[in-house]
Amino acid sequence: MALSGLWNCRKSWEQVVSSNNTNNAPKSDRSRRVGGQYYVYVYIDPRNFEEFYFGKGMGSRKDAHLTDSSDSEKAKRIAAITKAGMSPIIRVIARDLSEHDALLIEKTLLWKLGRMLTNVSSGHYTENFRPHNSMHVKLSGFDFKAGIYYYNVGDGPCRSWEDYRNYGFISGGQGQRWKDAMCGFKEGDVVAAYLKNHGFVGIGRVIAEAQPARNVLLEGKPLLALPLKCQGMNANSESDDLCEYVAPVEWVASVERSEAKWERKTGLYTTTHVRASLDGQPRTIEFLENAFGTDMRALVT
Predict the structure, then answer these.
(1) CATH 3.10.590 in the chain, residue ranges
(2) CA separation (Å) from 54 to 4, 27, 131?
(3) pTM here?
C-alpha cells in the first residue's frame, strides 16, 4: 500500500474512534474509550512501501522492534532493510486509545492483510473475525445468524436417541466440558444428530437454549416427569455443573436408529465431541441434505 493509502487508512480509523467518543455514548462506555494512552502503529518497508507489521503500544513501544535480534520474520525483515542501508518507516496510525480499542484495531488490520504480514497473530478477538480463505462459502455467525452443527447423541446411561426423537430435545452434561458444549447451542441453530456405530439419525432446529434438565418443560410437562426410556437423565440433577443440560429441538427429519444414514469410506465427518461446526464439511452437508431430503442452509437463513 502506498503512503497515500496508509494516510487514508489512518483517517478512516481516526474517524471511527472519533464517532465512538460522542457525548451520546453511555457514561461508562465514554470513560472506557476516552483519554487512552495506547496507539496502533505500522512498520513499512521503504524498499517497496509494503506494510509488514502492525502493533499496539504506548510510550516508546513502537521503536522497540528495531533492536529485536530474534529469528522472527519481523526481525529478519528489519535486518534486511538495515543491510540495504535504510530504516523501516514507522508510523502511528491511530492514537489516544484505550487498550481495548487498540487491540481491536490491531486485530482488524492483522485480519485484513493476513499472511502478508510478519505478525504472529494473538488470540485477541479471534472468534469475532472470519477465518481467512473462507470467502467462497457462507459461514454461520457471519453470513447468517444461526449455525449448522454436528451433534453427538452419546447414547448411554444418561441419554437416549428414542427419548430425543419422541419428545423433541437433545442433551449433554455430567461434566463441565459437556455442559459448555450444550450451552454453545443457540436458538435457531441446526443440528445433525449422529449416533455412534449407526450413523446420522436426524436433522433438527434448536428452539431454545440449553438449561438444566430439572428446569425443562416439554409441552407443559416437566421433562424428568415424562416416561423416559433413559431414567438416568436425572443424574446429578441438583448440581448446575454436573447435571444433564437439555435443549428443546424441533426435528425437521428423523429416523429410528435402525434406519440411520451412513456411507462407509466416503469421508463423512464424525467426532467424539458433543458439538462441532459443519461449516468446513461440505461433503457431509451434501450427504445429509440428500439423505434426509432437506436444505440445511435454508433452515438457518
Answers:
(1) 148-300
(2) 17, 31, 19
(3) 0.58
